[in-house]
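input
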Amino acid sequence: MTIAGAHLPPPPGGLELAAAGSLASAAVEAADRMARRWTSAEPGPLRPGSAEHRRAVARMFRETFNPYKPTIIDWPALGQEERDRLVSLPIWDIAVQTEGKASLRMATYAETQVDPDWRAALELNGWEEKRHKVILSNLVQAYGITLEPEPEYLKPRDTEWAYLVTGFSECIDSFFAFGLFALAQRSGFFPPELVDTFEPVMQEECRHILLFANWLAAHRRSLGPLRRAWFEMRVWAVWVFLGWERIGLARGMDDGGQAAKPQDNNFTLTGSKAVSDIDVSVTELMALCLEENDRRFAGYDPRLLRPTTMPWLTRLALRVAKVFTRKEKAA
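output
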């Protein structure tokens, strides 16, 4: 079933979306490969903050653009039980609203960029977030999922803060979403056709956080000592804010005062039961998230930086869990 969906403007920078006749498997597979594997022609190391690094990141983001078109997605028919599972997921309102806010925030921050490479990459990032919102809007329309009225999306007062919150949020949520998505694929809890429909969206999230990690490193190198110290304080404040948000203490503190349901904010951390009928322990899910995170980044030039915080914290947690398991067995 194909849904007309919301209006999506053409992608920036002269890029084009796929035509209806390009749904042939060969064309889809070629676009998918290009979106997942990329190596820079720049010789030598790509030092963050250098012109070579900036050019490589911008080219990566543009050349791995996937031209899939939301309005020609053929949503698979679902049985009643399958539809009920989909409708019961507590994510649809916050997912649509998150993509709406992310699109506006990235587009607004792109306007502040003087360098044309960073500006073009962030503009495309914001456009892709808008495409995600259109996809989600089409999905809920296709399967009759009722949403709460959307709030008015307001331009952030502090564009840098809003961009940092969005970027670090994606780093956290995508890390766990990679594992949950793989779990849903393996369990067969949802029809494979439906899961496969979201595969390009998942890989786009990988590209988004790859862009964010490299922008962050380059931006840090561009700052003098005092501005760098202030920026690092802001980064720590963002992490504190996100921690509060995920335990329900920071609702309404974000730009515009738009509150989010705590259980929705934490779905990527707690949603294994909702996407699978397989009993998975916390450590097994964490290991799967690491595995999927590494797999999704593997195709991109290894000289580009990857997000490190969530993988490091997860590996630390797994090591600690192993120590406790050994002690319990010894006792």
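quick obs: The CA atoms of residues 107 and 123 lie 5 Å apart.
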